[in-house]
Amino acid sequence: MAKIKAIKPYKLAAGETRYKFKIYLGTNPITGKRIETTRRGFKTITAATNEYLRLKIKFKDGYRPEKKTYSDIYNEWLSIYQKSVKSSTLHKTKQLFHDHILPCLGHVKIQSITYKHCENAAFIWYDQLKKHKTVEHYAAKVFDYARKLGVIERNPMKDVTTPIKKQKESSKDYYSREELIEFLEATKNEDIKKYAYLRLLCYTGIRRGEGFSLQWSDINFYKKEITINKAVTYDENGKLIISTTKTSDHRLLKIDDRTLTILNEWKQIQSDLHCNISTDNLVFSNKQNNISYPSKAWDWCNKIQEKYKLKKISPHDLRRTHATMYYMSGATHYEIKKRLGHSFKDITSDVYIIETDEIKNNAFENYIRYMNY
């Protein structure tokens, strides 16, 4: 066997001889860069020579980039994406890929995925999902990442067009003042924990996860205010945690006497159930005095609405109801945005208008007068 100059001997720390080589495999057609690789650890010059020749034969027609599947590129994309989002968003994104995108595209070599592959997948999502466009959007992100890496030249998902599903004719997913009072009267017949929680949602417009993250220290009974600065959510593994709010905001909301009285009644009962709770205790903890699942809000709403034959709306619709009632009582869009914790896109409202105590108190007092319940 002819001697190959590239193969060199070297010594281990223990004094044993091993062989290594550096080999040129050609040029990457995408990047234009030289491709070289080093192999070492061969016990004999024959083993090193065989591997050198094997690589030479394998790449004699030039360097061929490794063909990766859509799943391979997705995992690379995910390692970067996860650094820029909250753990709850990461969990939802991973679930979306696991349930819908990877079953359709994950096993296919990404260079081999055509427009037709993407169209077929998109129409599967269209048939199965209400928010099919969201799935298409995330599937396209992985193709965009592959294109930036130089693995593919264009994003085949970008050419796919699926119909936009028609929305139901302006369904009234909120309660009128009379319907809201009927709902709260029914809720009053349930246990006080449910009543206190649902009354709080109706009279503050907070998100259900924000309600379940509240600690007693967040409620100022003297100043009649409630601090909203966190929410129950999920980490990347689907475990319940308490994190920042959806928009990472910090809100100080006025709260009415009746709601405070109901909360105080629940506090006394909770203290008896869990033996003298502290100010750090969760207001609406579960039976083990730990974090409650936000889905509890759905369960409570559904059971009350079915039991008393009330119009079916979701916990989020109670938030929409609060915003509607606030507006009907005379509040401005600015006051409603501040109360709900929505992010501002209007620089005038965001930077130049200051929410004074007078603005906040007047808007809330008008709302209480309007509700009169």
Structure write-up:
The structure is a single chain. The protein is mostly helical. It folds into three domains: 8-58; 70-159, Tyrosine recombinase, N-terminal domain (DNA polymerase, domain 1, Orthogonal Bundle); 177-371, Intergrase catalytic core (hpI Integrase, Chain A, Orthogonal Bundle), CATH 1.10.443.10. The chain contains 14 helices and eight strands. A three-stranded antiparallel beta sheet has the order 1-2-3, with helices on one face. A hairpin with a 4-residue loop joins strand 4 and strand 5. Helix 2 (70-81) crosses helix 5 (132-149). The protein is elongated, with a radius of gyration of 30 Å. The termini are far apart. The relative contact order is 0.08.
The total tally of domains equals 3
| End-to-end separation | 97 Å
Strand composition percent: 5-15%
Morphology: elongated
- Series of secondary-structure elements, N-terminal to C-terminal: EEEHHHHHHHHEEEEEHHHHHH
